[in-house]
Amino acid sequence: MTADLNFGARSLPTGASGQDSWNPSDRERATEMDTPPLRLKESDTPLRGVRSNIVQSIRAFRVPDLQEIAQSLGQHFLYANLAEAQSKQDVLDMIAAQFTFPSHFGKNFDALYDCMTDPLHKSGPQPGFIVVLEQIPAHAKFDKEAREQLLDIFRDASDYWGDRKVPFRCFYSFL
Per DSSP, what are the bridge partners of residue 77? Predict the structure, then answer.
């Protein structure tokens, strides 16, 4: 994990071997992984052709690969699986929980934008962000307008960080 903040870093639930649970044989690999990874340049990653500040469909990328890229670049990795969300409030609650937002999060789109920008900016220089919003709901209680509003928040956050010359890439998929 690269985040030094109280919120913002999210790890996929896997052991060092990439399996769904930790097993004793992972202990040796974990010890080897304790050494700091070498930082790659973006030109040495699969993101070399992706603008540094963008919100786009995840299509060609796998979530574990994006997490590994974030780690190798020393960037924050934020992940939210929204498959169980049924409404706008569910989506906001799940993002807040999975991004580990502070308890005072207002649970509306304005508060989401604020949490993605201002507190992070005030905490000091940021190395960059790779954000994944997986399985955004696509049904009557979270319709096309709500999906576009959600993605607009992340587009605005991308612009905010772009103005500060900080990479912010958000990848998403629909349920």
Answer: 130
Residue type at position 77: F
pLDDT digits (tens, 9 = 90+) for 117-128: 987 767 888 999
Helices marked H in the chain — which ranges? 26-33, 63-73, 88-98, 109-122, 144-163
- Cβ–Cβ under 8 Å, residues 36 and 125: no
Q: Answer whether 46's CB lies under 8 Å from 115's CB.
A: no
pLDDT digits (tens, 9 = 90+) for 58-102: 998 999 999 999 999 999 999 999 999 999 999 999 999 999 998
150, two tokens: 């959600």
| Cβ proximity of 67 and 77 under 8 Å | yes
Rg (CA), the chain: 16
CB 127 within 8 A of CB 118: no
CA atoms within 13 A on the CB side of 4: 9
| CA 49/CA 43 separation, integer angstroms | 8
Q: Degrees (nearest 5) of the Cα angle 164, 166, 168?
A: 120
